[in-house]
Design a protein that fits this description.
binds pyridoxal-5'-phosphate, alpha/beta, five-stranded mixed beta sheet, 12 strands, 11 helices, globular, Aspartate Aminotransferase, domain 2
């Protein structure tokens, strides 16, 4: 703390990102990165963009990337906003579209950045409890509000909400924004993007960090009615006109064009998840049904923090949230088959040892 800090800074409660350990020999299953490398075509495009042209500013509207996303998602570039990560797109969304008189609504268990943005932009919010099985029910959101935002699948639970339910909310609250954060949608859900043509109050946000293996490039985007996109552009151009650099525009565009690679890596993650869930359930874990590239689980007989610490001692990092209702859960990113086999092996040995102590 310092006398030079602004009042705003004194009042902030910043987001705490998952650990990025220095050691390379760790099995890192704590921040939902993709275990597979980015598309070779994306890497080649980035290498090609690393040229003397870096002397020049990038295209302020990243038109090449907007076109690549438009082609993939069958929308027009006017329906697309791009930003330096979906976290940045989310931040602009909170200021541009979720700051109204009434409090906004989001689940009590969700992406922990949402309340942080509310703090930064002084946006009132109310949390809506998920049901006991961590399912989200649209009926709980049918009341006057300044907007609704949730991830689908939700984080850190991995539970998917059916598209019909999202449409039910859009129809019931035409005067409120509905923002769906689809960071994990490609691992087993159906995107709500098809609904933006019908519902002018829907904004869908996606990222290249998870399903397209580009967390290090920092690219995210939003799709919605051109009027919503215009609001985001107004905020962006009041903040940073060039949020995406030349390497990011080139790499992200090429990643979108390489559909075959994208489908192949998503399918691999999904197959590994199916196998991992079966193994974990065999070990006695309760695993929340996941449509994401992570699983959320607890063991009825073992404290989550103790398990996390043990895994860490065995060079496996997973995420624990010190929060009411979920402090006995662990969130585990789907790694490669080999990484997941090692995880199961370490857990099995630990549980067997504990059992032999107890008997
Ligand atoms: C990972 C994640 C993001 C952030 O993605 P970036 O584009 O890397 O900033 C946004 N929302 C949710 C729910 C996430 O899990």
């Amino acid at each position: 703390m310092s006398q030079y800090w602004s009042k705003v800074v004194h009042g902030l409660t910043p987001y705490v990102p998952g650990e990025q350990p220095k050691m390379n020999d760790m099995i890192k299953l704590n921040t939902n990165e993709n275990p597979y490398p980015p598309s070779p075509k994306a890497l080649a495009a980035i290498q090609q963009a690393a040229s003397e042209d870096l002397r020049l500013y990038p295209a302020p509207n990243a038109d090449q990337l907007k076109q690549a996303i438009a082609d993939y998602h069958h929308v027009t570039p006017q329906q697309i906003f791009v930003g330096n990560s979906s976290d940045e797109v989310l931040a602009h969304t909170f200021l541009a579209l979720l700051k109204h008189d009434l409090p906004i609504l989001f689940p009590d268990i969700t992406y922990s950045f949402y309340p942080v943005y509310c703090g930064l932009y002084e946006i009132a919010f109310q949390t809506v409890p998920l049901r006991d099985d961590f399912s989200l029910h649209i009926a709980d959101y049918l009341r006057p509000n300044g907007g609704v935002i949730f991830p689908n699948p939700n984080a850190p639970t991995g539970r998917l909400l059916a598209l019909e339910e999202i449409e039910r909310l859009l129809m019931a609250t035409p005067d409120s924004m509905v923002v769906v954060d689809e960071a994990y949608i490609d691992f087993g859900g159906t995107s709500a993007i098809a609904l933006v043509h019908t519902y002018p109050n829907l904004l869908v946000i996606q990222t290249l960090s998870k399903a397209r293996s580009l967390a290090g490039l920092r690219v995210g985007f939003a799709i919605g009615h051109p009027d919503l996109i215009m609001a985001l552009e107004r905020v962006k151009n009041s903040f940073n006109s060039y949020p995406l650099d030349r390497l990011a525009i080139a790499g992200a565009s090429a990643a979108f064009a390489d559909v075959a690679y994208f489908k192949q890596t998503c399918a691999a993650v999904i197959a590994t998840r199916t196998e991992l869930v079966a193994s974990l359930e065999e070990l006695g874990f309760d695993v929340v049904p996941s449509s994401a590239n992570f699983v959320f689980m607890r063991h009825p007989q073992h404290d989550a923090r103790t398990l996390q610490a043990y895994l860490r001692s065995q060079a496996i990092i997973v995420r624990h949230f010190n929060q009411a209702r979920i402090n006995q859960h662990l969130r585990v990113t789907i790694g490669t088959d080999e990484q997941c086999r090692q995880l199961v092996l370490v857990l099995r040995e630990y549980l067997q040892r504990q059992q032999s102590f107890a008997s």
